[in-house]
């Protein structure tokens, strides 16, 4: 996996960034508005920098670079609100080289050099001769499909410039008038032009990403400076949390652009579907970014003196010229469910790689073979995402096969496999619906013991964890404290013989009914600040004075409240220093970061697809209903975004890259979209989703209930938003 541009691409991006910062400043953008939103000097400068020739083949005198290079350029153009139809110009320059190799039009070289401007018509002129054309107000010619032919139209005086929502050089053109040159006819010409339009969608998505990130940056900076009620407004969660939501969605949109280009480069079967979903998602993320960015400024955001409104209007102009963005979901649905044929562009070289590697593939295959061999029909029927699906014998067999905790160091019984391989193996666990709860908790607690435990603790507990002989539970939360674990009141009192007496209770000790130990956060010095006077212990759950009380939840998942009355624990079971529990806990929370609910989310959508294929809506098969299909592909776009955010935290962890709360970001986004989509899918498949007769209906029902706890696992979404706001946007502390 490699999730960053190459060194050459970084240098190229920096070059364009410096140029655009100088030549497309907000002042220059404002100056271009009375000129119809077009900056001729900027356009010429972009051409001189090679922007318009970036996708022109080298054989035609261009730079011959890939879509990814052009997307990186478009991010910078979006960030600086470049005044001109750059995405259209890049695609048109490439199309001219492909469709007019002999330069019969006399425009091929002139376009690449910035002496002439050619743009694209986004709709078939045969069906829609009069249409709004991006850049049409300043273009010398327009490339358009006209039925079976691809034509070059020189509109001349027939163009009609009109006022639009944003100051971009959009014009309504009559493509049936003016001088016309046929550049090609038949299937090949149409396919070439269609591929250009697909590339345009990706370039616009990239531009929206750049625009959105800058709008959020401006808003976050303002939120740090503007003081209200004696505090910067960024300290208020009503301001910081919406901005955190926005930046996570925009980051997901960027990764979706990259992943889609990778899919085109690799010839993946769902590449066309990804293009439609990516532009839709980037458009939605941009709408969230610019509207929340503007709202951060309050009433000032409505005035023309502040720049934020420019981002709001420009984001709409770049996207809506194609039409209603929701139609992109219909397009994605046709490509997914009807197999609609789509011509795709040549992606060129792609530096970003999403594959997990050979080690990951090998471990996934080994894990799959294990489950296929071990899981009997009875065990498969028992499978459940929670501890209800735990089977002690399978757990031990996984350990014996070296598949329980393969990432652990060899010195404590592991195989030292890499982060990517662990993810690939976990995907197989998800495929078999086999619970990872016990394994995940064992991993966290075992590594905490390895770093902070005494030798006796390692001999008594760690050695048995790796053999699959025991489970352990987490004992952080308490009744009344919720996510504020430092409000713990459970006391650990030192006894004369050096041991400790534990008194108190812990809430949500899931798996305690299967476990031998609980890792417990206790208060050892009530006179110190609450985050300093805590100490961590491994407490035997079978000791005298321990009571485990079942707590049933409505998502078919048992948890527990556990009581500790005079439980004596040897000092050898203390982790870390006395009153130094914060350091120990920090490791546990670090290991817990980056969870995602996308596996459940994706399986839920597939269950809905199967269920709808067997039912009817409005007198037709459910999966043929346009509204139903739109909702399904929207949910799948959210799944793709969650997956990619998870891949990001996977990558930065594996490669030691800077981490700006990327773990909280994926947890928050995946939980919230899973929750929202589970509600919608439950509705979509009603009334069947109410019943348990169908396995798919029952699973949808379960996901709806499970999704509610997703927003609280590992800290609530609100806690995650605060971390994103502080660490990624630089906003003041909000809690």
UniProtKB/TrEMBL annotation:
EC number: 1.3.8.-
Pfam families: Acyl-CoA_dh_1, Acyl-CoA_dh_M, Acyl-CoA_dh_N
Species the sequence originates in: Novosphingobium bradum
Record-annotated Acyl-CoA dehydrogenase/oxidase N-terminal domain positions: 6-84, 358-469
Residue ranges annotated for the Acyl-CoA dehydrogenase/oxidase C-terminal domain, each copy included: 197-335, 601-727
Acetylation recorded as keyword: no
Protein name according to UniProt: Acyl-CoA dehydrogenase
Family statement: Belongs to the acyl-CoA dehydrogenase family.
Membrane-crossing segments per the record: none
UniProt keyword Flavoprotein present: yes
Residues covered by the Acyl-CoA oxidase/dehydrogenase middle domain: 473-553
UniProt KW keywords: FAD, Flavoprotein, Oxidoreductase
GO molecular function terms attached to this record: oxidoreductase activity
Names of required cofactors: FAD
